[in-house]
Amino acid sequence: MASRLRSPFKEPEIELFVKAGLDGENIGNCPFCQSLFMVLWLKGVRFNVTTVDITRKPEELKNLAPGIKPPFLVFNKELKTDFLKIEDFLEQTLAPPKYPQLAPKYKDSLNVGADIFAKFSAYIKNPHKEANKSLEKALLREFKRLDDYLNTPLPEEIDQDSTEEVMVSRRKFLDGDRMTLADCNLLPKLNIIKIAAKTYLDFEIPREMTAVWCYLQHAYARDEFSHTCPAEKEIERTYASVAKKMS
């Protein structure tokens, strides 16, 4: 009789396919792959990760996802290939109470870093040295926006009944003290910028942007982020050809 009262819930079968690195086995440089890796890890669901060497895709994967580059996902034997749709699907399917909700409470948490990677890409891919100063300034403006947002207290940090005014936020991540989809989308890109910009542009996030550095420090302390990051050489290799065009 007791066995009939057990929950009928069955763990889904999930396999995430991500870009392989230099050796064809370890994780390669792909912020979208890392983002989905982080989402699944934060959801607390069991899943397998398979790295795909896009230079010599195995025959079985050619049959599974012909012409499709990672990331893609197989969920209960159903193929999912669109990054944004995969993210939405996982949030809706792996939902409370069994799995945590990862959608941020505040829309600005998703929007604040939306242009950083585009500004970085324009800067590092620019072949005209005379434009570097203006491109660097554009990138710095986006980092300033991020720093200001991280410093600004969220509504939940402000006690309306308190006589003490909260001047600076003490939260760890974009939307509070827990990681959300906003962090999964932004952090992989910040990691790439931090490494590639230093190597090829001699650019570093200004130390006075303390909120950004604290944010990164909290992120690297979390396995969901630090253990899904590609090796630095993977990132450097990705931008090596771009850097040659600049020199």
Structure commentary:
The chain has 247 residues and is an alpha+beta fold. The protein has ten helices and four strands. A four-stranded mixed sheet has the order 2-1-3-4. Helix 1 packs parallel to helix 3, helix 1 (31-43) runs antiparallel to helix 7 and helix 7 (181-201) crosses helix 10. The longest helix is centred in the C-terminal third of the chain and has 21 residues, at 181-201. It is flat and about 55 Å long. The model is unreliable at 1-7 (pLDDT under 50).
Average pLDDT score: 91
Number of strands: 4
Low-confidence stretches: 1-7
Biggest sheet, spatial arrangement of strands: 2-1-3-4
Question: Per DSSP, what share of the residues sits in E-state strands of 2 or more residues?
Answer: 5-15%
Ends apart, CA distance between termini: 75 Å
Query: Which structural class do you get from the secondary structure elements?
Result: alpha+beta
Radius of gyration, CA atoms, in whole angstroms: 20 Å
The residue fraction in helices comes out at 40-55%
Helices and strands, in order, run as EHEHEEHHHHHHHH
Number of helices: 10
Overall 3D geometry?
Answer: flat
> Mind describing the biggest β-sheet?
4 strands, mixed
